[in-house]
UniProtKB/TrEMBL annotation:
Signal peptide, first to last residue: 1-21
Domain of life: Bacteria
Keywords from the UniProt entry: Signal
Name this protein carries in UniProt: Lipocalin-like domain-containing protein
Amino acid sequence: MKFLKNISLVFLLFIGLSASAQTYRFETSGVSMSVKNSKGKWSEYSDFKEAKIVVTLDTNKDRIVVYSEVVQLYTILGYDDPKTNEEGSVDTFQCVNVDGEKCVLVIRTIKGSDVKQLYIYEDSRVLIYNMKYVK
């Protein structure tokens, strides 16, 4: 009987943890980029170009996927504490890309707007996607 209680407790705990994990889907409208030159200096951000693609944040699988022409897959190694200020909120993710390189992804929510921005900080480039959450 004690064995069944323990199994039930583990099962309920597992269900509770699974229920808190979610997948968030976003649709982008544009992308901008800055690149680092051979001297280590960053370029100005490019003008936003139209980019109608899907981005998913899957907290169950600890990954963010950008479904661009070349799919960008980022494994989340750590979740930083969310920050909020007068401009909006910032969620930061410590990640690794498919090449094993560490990078930082940030989702900024602009206060009073449904527009979000995804920043992808890598060693040699920074991408910014304007996007909206899709239910």
